[in-house]
Amino acid sequence: MDNDGKTNSASGKSGTPGAVRRGAGRHAPREPILWTLPGFCRNARVATDFGDLPIEALRRRDPLRTVQGSLAHVAWVDRIHLDEEFLRANPDALPVLIPAGALGPGRPRSDLRVSPHQKINAGTGEFRPDFRMARDLTDRPGIMRSPETLVTYHVFHCGAPVSVLIEGIGVSTSP
């Protein structure tokens, strides 16, 4: 699947019609959904073969640095836009803020906002991986849900499960 400029919207207003829409009409009550998608908010910097790149600039076939030092190529990129109405009805979709240094010196290098279901290496280093969903890290000092009214999650994978570096932290990607 290629990123052709279309985006998914939880409000059903653009991209795939009714992408995550619940209920028959605009004012029909909606049932909360179980949020399970991973992703990163803007300005997260991913390690590539040609230097760190903002996540929003990531494109198909870009070479990413893996935790092991090899390269993996991006197979698919997408954006998921969540509006205020969706976030109010589905608070589990709110991003998790991981402040700079919250997981150890330079981990992450700068504040990082991720989907609650993004798997992050919360271990003491890359040689002792301990991948956990970001939502499960909110009991650590400084790590918390980030109140937002609009969120865009940038999602990508490399065709096979791989761990890449974003802001100096190993993160898991899988198709």
UniProtKB/TrEMBL annotation:
InterPro entries: Hedgehog/Intein_dom. Residues 38-169 form the Hedgehog/Intein (Hint) domain. Residues 1-27 are annotated as: Disordered. Pfam families: Hint_2. Residues 1-14 have a biased composition (Polar residues). This is Hint domain-containing protein. It comes from Albidovulum salinarum.
